[in-house]
Amino acid sequence: MLRFENVCFGYRGEDVMADVSFEMVEGEFTALMGENGAGKSTLCRLGNGLLKPMSGRVMVGGHNTKHVKTSSLAALVGFLFQNPDRQLCSGTVRGEIMLGLENTGFDKATRLKRCDMMLEMFGLDGTRDPFGLSRGERQKVALASVLAPKPGLLILDEPTTGLDYRECVTIMDIISRLNEEGTTILMVSHDMEVVGDFAKRALVLSGGHIVGDGPVREIMRDRAVMESSSLLPAQIPSLAMRIGDLGAAFGSAFTIDDMVAAVERSRDCSGMRRAAAS
Ligand SMILES: Nc1ncnc2c1ncn2[C@@H]1O[C@H](COP(=O)(O)OP(=O)(O)OP(=O)(O)O)[C@@H](O)[C@H]1O
Ligand SMILES: [Mg+2]
Description:
Rossmann fold; 6-stranded mixed sheet; globular
């Protein structure tokens, strides 16, 4: 679905990405993590064809982004900017979502139906001016317009930034449901709880390289990777690691794996988050 092959990229002669390679298959939910300035947004923009690699290739759904217009890629890739104001340009919320549905090949009736569906799903008033809304509400409008065409691949650059806890869970539940229905998701997030609860795989960028790639739980327990990228693991793996350290100090036979399994058995983290927000 999305493949980076030895991708190098830089701005004005300054390297940001050096020889980055990874592949995402259909249906994956991958979190992209890394410290500020690591190049996450740049990688996202390379993934939707807004930026082209200086060397190497980016393949989206079998197409080399260098040879396809960004507007044609838009049908394959839904892209949410880190700052929603970079993509909002319509006078009403309804207009913004309809804009996202243009050039999708849907007939007018289907476009209207999908727009209504998005308004309801996100609890939005279609008549409002997006620029009169709060930062979190504008984030929801931008996300609704990206999701409306139901693209096969979603690249989301910090979708929950600016949202309160309840809204964060609402949005993540929508994204998670889309993923369960088959949408491939690459999501940048600094929120380790969100990553731990929803993503299956984590990619960690640092110094222009992928320094970590694997199941989220394994990456969060990899101290070298987490520390090299100034990342703090989510509470449960972190707690398990601390208890594991204590066990080791006191000569206990308990391993970190035992502790993780025990903690997760006794407490379904995602379930609790949803219950707390409902
Ligand atoms: N348009 C640009 N022109 C020049 N340099 C840029 C441009 N966009 C990004 N950079 C630089 O490239 C590097 C990577 O930026 P990028 O925005 O991809 O990082 P990021 O990982 O998304 O950071 P953050 O977590 O703060 O969003 C940074 O050093 C940044 O200053
Ligand atoms: Mg960024």
